[in-house]
Every structure is written in structure tokens, then in C-alpha cells.
């Protein structure tokens, strides 16, 4: 049934854990936080959201964090190099045109990614930020998200198909 609790027995035991991912109510990944033992043992640790803050886990997590920072730095440098290649680049996409210079269909991010691939630049269509579908002839500026803090702008020129 229920358990009768007297005086100091009702206090929850607090443990320290290392968060392995961002948890809005607790903190960012890598933070050492204090939580109730039951919350850590029954929820955070079994789901891989935290590790117990032992000296071994702390040093291992620090090593992984430094390795992750080096990998992110390399990724950001590679993205910056690709951004330098993309900046000022113009991609021409010929399309069928109807009356009033309106396109049959629209130019999609997949089409732009394909045109960039033809120029030797491997960009995923999900990295392209098209504010709205391109449905008319003309020049458009499209942002390319290469890394969290690295973006480039590509000029997309939609011309009539010959």
C-alpha cells in the first residue's frame, strides 16, 4: 500500500550527473548538475541523457568534448572554404516559360542543388534556404547553410528554355 514517512526520511537524495544532451529544464550538454537520485537512476541514465559524475566519467567526457570541439572546428573550416567557393557564384537554370514570364511549375531546391553538383559542388538540397518557390524568370539570391555559423549566398538565374 502506501508508505508512512516520518521526519527526515522524506528528503530526496541528490546526486551529480553529467548531461550528455541538452535538456531545457536542466542545462546544456556537458554540464554537471545536481538532480534527485530517482530522476537520475530511473530516467536520465537509462535513456542515455546523462552519466553519473564519477572522476572517470568526468575525464572521459572532457576528452570526448575536446575531440568534438576539434571535429567541429575542422567542419567549420571546411564549410568556410566551401563558402568562399560559393560566394558570388551564379547558377543558370533554364525553364519552360508560359505567358507573362511565368514558369510551368517552379524552381525547387533540388534543382538548384543539381545545378551546383554539375559545377562540382556537393550541396544537399536541405542546406538551401529558399524563402518561397521561384515561379518567375529572373535572378534570385539563395542562402546556403553550410555549418551552424557559416552561410553563403548563391545567385540563381532562371532563364527561358531554348
Rg from C-alpha positions?
A: 26 Å
SS element count, helices: 3
Number of domains: 2
> How much helical structure, as a percent, in the residues?
25-40%
Which regions contain 5 or more consecutive residues with pLDDT less than 50? none
Largest sheet: 4 strands, mixed
Distance between the termini: 82 Å
**The first-level CATH class name of the largest domain:** Alpha Beta
What is the CATH topology classification name of the largest domain? Ribosomal Protein L9, domain 2
Q: How do the strands line up in the largest sheet?
A: 4-9-8-6
How does CATH name the architecture of the largest domain? Answer: Roll
Element pattern in H and E: EEHEHEEHEEEE
CATH superfamily of the largest domain: Ribosomal protein L9, C-terminal domain
List the helices and strands and how they pair.
Blueprint (H helix, E strand, L loop, with lengths): L13 E6 L12 E5 H8 L5 E3 L2 H32 L3 E6 L6 E6 L1 H10 L9 E2 L4 E3 L1 E10 L2 E11 L2
Parallel strand pairs: 4-9
Antiparallel strand pairs: 1-2, 1-3, 5-7, 6-8, 8-9
What does it look like?
The chain starts with 13 loop residues before the first strand and ends with a strand. A four-stranded mixed beta sheet has the order 4-9-8-6. Strands 2-1-3 form a three-stranded antiparallel beta sheet. It has a two-stranded antiparallel sheet with strand order 5-7. It has helices spanning 37-44, 55-86, 109-118, and strands at residues 14-19, 32-36, 50-52, 90-95, 102-107, 128-129, 134-136, 138-147, 150-160. Helices cover 31% and strands 32% of the residues. The chain is α+β, with helices and mostly antiparallel strands and 162 residues long.
Amino acid at each position: 500500500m502506501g508508505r508512512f514517512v516520518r521526519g527526515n526520511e522524506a528528503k530526496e537524495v541528490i546526486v551529480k550527473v553529467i548531461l550528455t544532451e541538452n535538456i531545457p529544464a536542466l542545462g546544456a550538454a556537458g554540464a554537471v548538475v545536481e538532480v534527485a537520485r530517482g530522476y537520475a537512476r530511473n530516467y536520465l541514465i537509462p535513456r542515455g541523457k546523462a552519466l553519473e559524475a564519477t572522476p572517470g566519467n568526468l575525464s572521459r567526457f572532457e576528452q570526448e568534448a575536446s575531440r568534438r570541439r576539434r571535429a567541429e572546428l575542422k567542419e567549420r573550416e571546411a564549410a568556410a572554404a566551401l563558402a568562399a567557393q560559393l560566394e558570388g557564384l551564379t547558377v543558370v537554370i533554364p525553364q519552360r516559360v508560359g505567358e507573362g514570364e511565368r514558369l510551368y511549375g517552379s524552381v525547387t531546391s533540388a534543382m538548384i542543388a543539381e545545378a551546383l553538383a554539375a559545377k562540382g559542388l556537393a550541396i544537399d538540397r536541405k542546406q538551401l534556404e529558399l524563402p518561397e518557390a521561384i515561379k518567375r524568370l529572373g535572378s534570385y539570391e539563395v542562402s546556403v547553410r553550410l555549418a551552424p555559423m557559416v552561410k553563403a549566398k548563391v545567385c540563381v538565374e532562371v532563364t527561358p528554355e531554348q
